[in-house]
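Q: Could you predict the 3D structure of RPE-retinal G protein-coupled receptor?
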Amino acid sequence: MGAYTLPDGFTDFDMFSFGSALLVGGLLGFFLNAISILAFITVKEMRTPSNFFVFNLALADLSLNINGLTAAYASYLRYWPFGQDGCDFHGFQGMISVLASISFMAAVAWDRYHQYCTRQKLFWSTTVVMSGIIWALSIFWAAVPLMGWGVYDFEPMRTCCTLDYTRGDRDYITYMLTLTVLYLMFPAVTMFSCYDAINKHFKKIHYYRFNTNLPLRVMLMCWGPYVLMCIYACFENVKVVSPKLRMVLPVIAKTNPFFNALLYSFGNEFYRGGVWHFLTGQKIVEPDIKNKLK
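A: Sure. Here are the predicted structure tokens for RPE-retinal G protein-coupled receptor:
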């Protein structure tokens, strides 16, 4: 291996530790989300409009897992081996994954509201169109920094790339605040309102099918601290924050795909039966939602 220079504030042990955290989180998420995707593809009974949202969420999260595993590989090397073009692509691919993942979490919440509260049937045409729009918008907003509104650059450890929040210029501020409104506040409000309505319905019928507080809490726990740091960078010099802390926050954020797989695939009554069928060959038992939610 060629010579390398450690980034400021990091030791060899730090590089190994962060790389190991990214590796473990990436592999766990990759394994669980790959099972979710394969189950949807191979088990015919799973292929419903509602489950298609969960399938797309797993695709977005699997892509984010790959992004994290690439960073883990570079961390073990102690340097970024793919050049500036590779950095731009890494940041672009990671941004698509994040924006799509958060959007599909909101879409699942919206769908669950109709499943449990309004009983409106979701059609394939609606699901496919919504999913296409989510992916198209995610690609568009991720591509914007490549066109000059914001910049992709290395994170403090210089083994992974993301939106450069250290510049603090007008382009970064306007882009970051736009993303915060569109891809954190709006999805969070959607999830809160949908799950709050579902929780009230569960209280009314005295039958709780899942914990309605977990989805939003998990999303905010994973992404909230990192987004707050990015917002802080809009108004203050973020370089005063320790480089190690600035690396801890994205590592925490990259655990979101693992928790999503547990919540939306393995913890979803309409999806976990198909996963079980895929893993064991035992037939799906469809939940009788119509009778139990009256």
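Q: Anything worth pointing out?
A: The domain at 14-292 is CATH 1.20.1070.10 (Rhopdopsin 7-helix transmembrane proteins).
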